[in-house]
Amino acid sequence: MTAGEFDSWGRIDRRARPAVSPDAYENLRDNAAPGAFLPFGNGRSYGDSCHNDQGRLIDSRMRTRILGFDPGTGIVSCDAGVTLRSILEQAIPHRFFLPVTPGTAAVTVAGAVANDVHGKNHHARGTFGKHVRRLMLLRSTGELLACSATENRDLFYATIGGMGLTGLILSVDLQLMKVPSAHIQQHAIRFDSLNDYFGMVETVDSEHEYSVAWIDQLATGKRAGRGVLLAGDHADASCEFPDMPRSMKLSVPFSPPFDLLNTVTLKAFNEFYFRKEKRGETVTTVKWPGYFHPLDAIGHWNRLYGPRGLYQHQSVYPADNARELTARLLETARKAGHASFLTVLKKFGEQASGGLLSFPRPGFTLTLDFANQGEQTLKLLNVLDAMVIEAGGAINAYKDARMSPQTFDSSFPQWRKLEELRDPAMVSNFWKRTALALPK
Ligand SMILES: Cc1cc2nc3c(=O)[nH]c(=O)nc-3n(C[C@H](O)[C@H](O)[C@H](O)COP(=O)(O)OP(=O)(O)OC[C@H]3O[C@@H](n4cnc5c(N)ncnc54)[C@H](O)[C@@H]3O)c2cc1C
């Protein structure tokens, strides 16, 4: 396999990676050596949790059938490699929508389960795994197990958020949600400081299905922490946009030899993005792809970070002192000379999915994207980790490419239970450098 085919989204460690189809895996698994495989979805994880350089990847994208959709109940059954975009295309004409949608529709359903992904409505609907009714899991022993809240329960909850380590998911039954329209009535609320954001977020979340804030990480002084809170609800049935708007897809054709998203360009972009919203609150109806997956309109936008790729740092921390910690995290990155293109702040709700290693937990989650500037960036990320862990928070594993075993242990103290249920044939680079580097 050539470099690029199995990259993860951060593009930090690019190399040719051997892979097999799920069909081939079914024949090979009998003699599988420990750690010989890892399922791969569509590489939208940022780091090394979807790679296994001691073995072969199992390419889920080779099975992409929608096996059934019941417009009465809204339950869709599909192969592991079906993308969320395909599910939306099937469901929207019947006025159903994904109950949880991450920031890109290019992920596979198995990838969404294995990382128990979250969306802009975590406060209302929890994570993706909460809506999975059943999944079929193939273990390397040859057992094909139906897993649900009532069948093989431990494996079900270990597989949700289990990062591909419990076996190969073959298919998923997912409960969709009924909506009047797929499009969104959006409330864009501009705020001048983190105090303003923290002062309104609880009320906004209680009033709207979706809510997420973009922050100008480079603003300083009185403007520090300014941003735009984008809340939304499904528009009513009279919305006049066609269900499937035509997509205008641009693409970044190759990686420029340097990072285009640097402090200078991002300062200008942030100023524009902030000023494009009027003061106060603006209500408009927007098409669903633009609201949920704006970056999907630009293919390979990750190439803009240049040949060395990017690191994403997503943390979650308790609500007490969140305002102060958010301000310190932003300032620490700024003072280290790092500009974050996508700086996103969201309040997670209380609902747990039950996933053993799920990332979301009550509190605030801050996401920062940094171009890889080598040692300087790694140093900054370690400092950010330490601040979050000290506050009782956690760092997201599927966005990570470098956290220490200790940071992982503090973030996911229950990891040993997943290790007990791990399929011995499966391992990832991430698991080797974190969990397996810790005492049992
Ligand atoms: C632009 C962008 C926006 C994003 N926004 C969000 C967001 O809002 N919220 C969020 O939570 N995440 C977000 N993400 C991250 C992304 O949703 C997750 O990393 C997702 O899990 C990637 O799925 P994938 O299909 O690409 O799988 P991969 O990244 O290839 O793999 C993910 C995991 O799934 C496992 N896996 C894949 N197939 C199978 C299978 N058949 N059986 C068992 N395990 C399997 C892999 O081993 C791996 O551990 C975003 C990513 C991008 C690039």
From TrEMBL:
<feature type="domain" description="FAD-binding PCMH-type">
    <location>
        <begin position="8"/>
        <end position="179"/>
    </location>
</feature>
<dbReference type="InterPro" id="IPR010031">
    <property type="entry name" value="FAD_lactone_oxidase-like"/>
</dbReference>
<dbReference type="Pfam" id="PF01565">
    <property type="entry name" value="FAD_binding_4"/>
</dbReference>
<dbReference type="InterPro" id="IPR036318">
    <property type="entry name" value="FAD-bd_PCMH-like_sf"/>
</dbReference>
<protein>
    <submittedName>
        <fullName>FAD/FMN-containing dehydrogenase</fullName>
    </submittedName>
</protein>
<keyword id="KW-0274">FAD</keyword>
<dbReference type="InterPro" id="IPR006094">
    <property type="entry name" value="Oxid_FAD_bind_N"/>
</dbReference>
<dbReference type="InterPro" id="IPR016166">
    <property type="entry name" value="FAD-bd_PCMH"/>
</dbReference>
<keyword id="KW-0285">Flavoprotein</keyword>
<dbReference type="InterPro" id="IPR016169">
    <property type="entry name" value="FAD-bd_PCMH_sub2"/>
</dbReference>
